[in-house]
Write a structure and sequence with these properties.
Order of helices and strands: HHHEEEEEEEEEHH
Number of strands: 9
Helix content: 25-40%
Strand order of the largest sheet: 3-4-8-7-6-5
Number of helices: 5
CATH class: Mainly Beta
Radius of gyration: 16 Å
CATH topology: Metal Binding Protein, Guanine Nucleotide Exchange Factor, Chain A
Strand content: 15-25%
Distance between the termini: 51 Å
Structural class: alpha+beta
Largest sheet: 6 strands, antiparallel
Shape: globular
Length: 199
């Protein structure tokens, strides 16, 4: 049964990627740029203790949650999506759209440096894996079949993210990142977006 589910998942991923097999991602900045060292570093035991089992499998072992099951797949509330591993801001709700592929999709990150890119040759495909630049944790993949203005589709796992609406208290992981590691650009982007929503 597990083998059947795995094969169905691979078929769905392949179908979702069918328009991108022979294309390269449009932006030159999406080339491999993973440095292998990150501001937020923990031992694997520390990651296991702080993350839920599915979060750990996705973020630290590059697993993929089943399509159409993620908690943020159909969500359309205003707010910001942060990394569940590092607490780093990743995407604003204004960049989210329904791609129909079964996973939350965004057309651009909150700031350019939020995402790192790495070539992924698993499952007989060549894709561009996306990682949070705060901890190097796996988020999903990016494809060049997205909407304007970027033409990109950041295909995310819900388990890789934490969602915060205006007025919500920040989860500890988000608060720690914003206080200790956030760049001035990240702080300004978060502040601007929440201020705009509260106007």
């Amino acid at each position: 049964m597990k083998l059947i589910i795995l094969n169905l998942l691979i078929i769905l991923i392949s179908a979702c990627n069918q328009n991108t097999k022979d294309m390269s991602v449009r932006k030159d900045s999406l080339k491999d740029n993973d440095p292998g060292r990150y501001p937020v570093e923990r031992t694997e035991q520390e990651w296991k203790s702080m993350l839920e089992p599915l979060e750990y499998q996705v973020l630290r072992q590059a697993a993929t949650e089943r399509p159409f099951t993620g908690k943020y797949y159909t969500q359309d509330k205003p707010g910001i999506y942060f990394s569940a591993a590092s607490g780093q801001p990743l995407f604003v709700s204004d960049a989210k759209y329904d791609s129909g592929c079964g996973w939350p999709s965004f057309f651009e990150p909150i700031v350019e440096g939020a995402i790192l890119y790495r070539t992924d040759r698993s499952h007989g495909m060549i894709r561009t894996e996306i990682l949070d630049s705060g901890s190097g944790s796996h988020l999903g993949h990016v494809f060049n079949d997205g909407p304007p203005p970027t033409g990109l589709r950041y295909c995310m796992n819900s388990a890789a993210m934490v969602f915060v609406q205006p007025g919500d208290s920040w989860p500890e992981v988000v608060r720690e990142y914003m206080e200790k590691y956030a760049s001035e650009e990240e702080k300004q982007a978060v502040g601007r977006f929440f201020s705009k929503l509260q106007e």
